[in-house]
Amino acid sequence: MSTPRVLVTGGGRGIGRAIALRFAREQAKVCVAARTSSELDAVVIEIGKAGGQGRAQQMNVADHSSVEGAVWRAVEFLGGAIDVLVNDAGVFDVKPFAEMDLKVWQRNLEVNLSGPFFVTLEALEPLLDGERRHVFNIASVAARKGFAGNTAYCASKYGLRGFSDALREELRPKGVRVSTVYPGPTDTKLFDGQPGQWDRAKMNKPEDVAEVVWKAYVAPEGANVDDLEVPPPKG
Question: Which residues are part of the catalytic machinery?
Fold first, then answer.
């Protein structure tokens, strides 16, 4: 297998960072994209220490023009093609529906649903030029089950699941795998400041999700990697 060329959104922290570092351990060339440049720069250093080559690319996934320019620069770094696209950038808001406002609703849909659409659309041509091509859309258990206080988040993640299902049917004949990943609660900064009782010691770690993604990427041809569950944490 040739060295993977990888683009990870939400790559500055949490699950995106863990996925970037997992591929870096396999000497991959990884472009990490997010809005916060200081976090990206730190991850690029970690990618180099892990054995890969990294590039930081600022990107606001909710802004199509930002995505367009950022993907172009990422592809330039990756040598003209993408083998692995990971749509991980996301937001999470706990808000009772009766208190829901348009800003929260739009934020969830723009980042969690329109974001993967924009990035995949701009990355499609270089992805089709890649090798062992694979798209990973990081969804959530909230793409399969509704949770009180999560109407906006669940709507966006159910939408991402539908996007993945339809995209898979279109890209399968072109030899591109599309996987939807369904992590349960994972100990990341998404939970910082959110109302509710969160026992983060009992959550999955971002590295648990990254390992599921890596194993699906190297799974043999013909293996079913459409919907990927993340095993609950041990203990």
Answer: 153
